[in-house]
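Appendix B, example 12.
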Amino acid sequence: MTETQNKVAIVTGASRGIGAAIAERLARDGFTVVVNYVGNAAEADAVVGKIEKAGGKALAAQADVSKPEDVRRMFQSAETALGGVDVLVNNAGVMALANIADCDDASFDRLVSINLKGSFNAMREAGKRLRNGGRIINFSTSVVGLKLESYGIYAATKAAIETMTGIMAKEMRGRAVTVNAIAPGPTATDLFLHGKSDELIERMAKMNPLERLGTPEDIANVVSFLAGPNGGWINGQTIRANGGMI
């Protein structure tokens, strides 16, 4: 991908948090961005409005990534409206914490259906539809390495993503499409901060040698590198963007 003008990027779960920061950064890089959301159209429209106000191009697209037909429709709509898709950022995900012995069926099924099957649904469509020279950027978590208590099911869904990332990179041979994953550490989003005490947040911020939480922009910078012309030699890798925590 020698340049980003006239390129199209789909960012799943892009109405807030890390996803919104990624959408805004890729728009600044010159991509036309499809801002995916599942339920909150107002938040997605706000991200689109912010991008357009800054001179970028974006459109909102509703799709529940856990539903294959929704994901297929989103890609088809992007192709119809914009001519094709060059980048998939598989950011949509949910987190629920419980010890393995205490995790209920509903929570397990939700994590698997959104984090694992949802990412698979988007990877499958991207594998068929991305233009040659494109990028697939998946999302894992540094907890795969840390193995913190109560994160077992969540981390398991993300470990599966890391494995599929490395395999799919090989399966895309001949099309110059790279497949990588980013594994953030604790990042200051509403999702992360909600329900945590100041003491716990401070303790987690100090876990890495840079002694701060990541920001959504920190993660968006890594996506920008992988999606842009300078990231083309990185393939089949998981990048732990966590300030050196592990």
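The chain has one domain: 8-241. The mean pLDDT is 96.
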